[in-house]
Amino acid sequence: MGIVNIEDDLHEQLRRASKASCRSINAQAAFWIRIGMLGELNPGLTFQELAARELRAAGVGEPVQTEVAA
To answer: In whole angstroms, what is the distance from residue 17 CA to residue 28 CA?
Structure first.
């Protein structure tokens, strides 16, 4: 793990976005970095397509199995 130096204005935007997204500042930065990296690796995909792909990979949207009490 390392430290990343960013401009004060970007850090302020990061802080505001983290509040709006209910994430920690570090989690918001990691999200932006990951989406940016995925965008560069997949220039033909939109943000929505990238996000949907990541959610599917994490198992979000799959039916939740619940047990029925007998």
So the answer is: 7
**pTM of the model as a whole:** 0.76
Identify whether the C-beta of residue 39 lies closer than 8 Å to the C-beta of residue 45.
Answer: yes
* Maximum CA extent, the chain: 59
- Residue 70's pLDDT band (cuts 50, 70, 90): low
Place of tokens 């983290």: 18
How far apart, in Å, are the Cα atoms of 20 and each of 15, 28, 55, 64? 9, 10, 19, 27
Tokens of 21: 């997204």
* Contacting residues for 23 by C-beta, under 8 A, at least 6 apart: 31
d(C-alpha 61, C-alpha 18), whole Å: 24
